[in-house]
Amino acid sequence: MDKINPESTFKRLRNTYRLVVMNDDTYEEMLTVRLSRLSVYIGLSTVFVVLVGLTIALIAFTPLKYYIPGYGTRESRTALQLLKIRTDSLEQAIHYKEQYLEGVKKVLSGDVQTKLDTVPLAMPKVESSND
User: Fold this and answer.
1) Residue 33 phi, psi dihedral angles, 5° rounding
2) Torsion 51-53-56-59 (CA) sign
């Protein structure tokens, strides 16, 4: 297997070719362009970079960006954050009310296990003197 010679590869990139556009009826040359593989590669790369740049600029600096999912105006994001805060506080209030109602149901049904909130003290017995 032959090794790729970098000098021959570079020479092939620099070889010039002629592109001729001819009129099919009269065989008159309409356009003649001298090209190399390197110039074609550079030209196509430049066109690609320019098109990508123009597309990004078109989206970034025009109202088209509002059609991208997840992107919105500053006002809509602020409103969304406020709605999220309200929703969280309402969920927390519902949770507290459910806990309260469960406690009331337990008290009404008699399922409450009472705990003494005082600790029984071991008091020494007082001897009565009946003498």
Assistant:
1) -130, 135
2) negative
